[in-house]
Amino acid sequence: IMKKILHLLIALLVGWSSMASAQGPSDQRAFNTKIADVLALMPAPNKAQLNANMEAIAALGEEGLATIAGMLANPGKGDNTPLQYAIAGYAFYVTQPGKEAARKQAVAALCKVLPKTSDPENKVFLITQLQTVGDNDAVSTLQSCLSDNRLCDPAARALVKINTPAAQEALLHALSSASGDNRITLTEALGDSRYTAAAAAIAPLAANADKKLAKVALYALAKIAAPASAPVLAAAAAKSGYTYDVTDATASYLTYAANLEDKNAAAKIAEDLLKQARADGQVHTRTAALKLLTAIRGEKSMPLLLAAAN
Q1: Rounded Cα gap, residues 308 and 215, in angstroms
Q2: For the residues of 62-131, what is the DSSP string, one character each?
Q3: In this structure, how many other beta carbons lie within 10 angstroms of the beta carbon of residue 119?
Q4: Residue ranges of the chain whose pLDDT lies below 50
Q5: What predicted TM-score, i.e. pTM, was given to this entire model?
Q6: DSSP code of 72?
Q7: Count of CB atoms situated within 10 Å of the CB of 69
Q8: What are the residues whose beta carbons fall under 8 Å from the beta carbon of 29, sequence distance 6 or more?
């Protein structure tokens, strides 16, 4: 009896194994067919079809989007148009209210495929989608792109959009070893993210011999508006003669004042500029300073307005 039971169990296990083997390829074929069906309808002719396509991709889960993204061909090796429509459309689709779980899956899928993608332009495309859907989970994947000359700019933009403490720290960490255009890109990104902790690292760049870098550094300091940055911006504006120069130093100083939380300090900067920018060629600086002062103090700035007019 025991022998018969043993033979029966072996037969059942062999049967289950055969069924599993047969089921696997069949499921995979069905999965691939669903993806092919969706791609065949891209770009969608109308909104209803687009929504149906996006729902079909959502039903395929993380693996579905990862498979589609992994199909992007290198230049000259195939037409990526349907794939790009599907991926970009889905990236927008999952940002809608109520799609949080799908959005998380999309981030995971894109982060999984990006490091495996060989073509730089396809990488840029995927990074751009992470700019749309990315959250803190995408930071480490994007950070790895910041040292690449082609990928630094799109990755920095995506991190600015995410703008979590981890994203800000990733940008600052990358700045410490960056050079050339990447250093300019990262400096600007830190300004756009308004990361206060970056002000100290950016301040020395405001006096750099590379005028393009100096201009971006002053812009970043103006956007961050850390109180400690005032002397750096004031010195740069004075050096420019409180008029236009290639670094936009005076404009950045005024922007900095406008962004300060301390409105008394901002008003003091505007008043000082009114006193210092008295030449005919500095009319635009006086006008901007008066505009700022009026925004802060309203009618109380009238005496200065009258004085500047005379």
Answers
A1: 29
A2: HHHHHHHHHTPPPTTS---HHHHHHHHHHHHHTTSTT-HHHHHHHHHHHHHHGGG---HHHHHHHHHHHH
A3: 14
A4: 2-23, 309
A5: 0.85
A6: P
A7: 25
A8: none
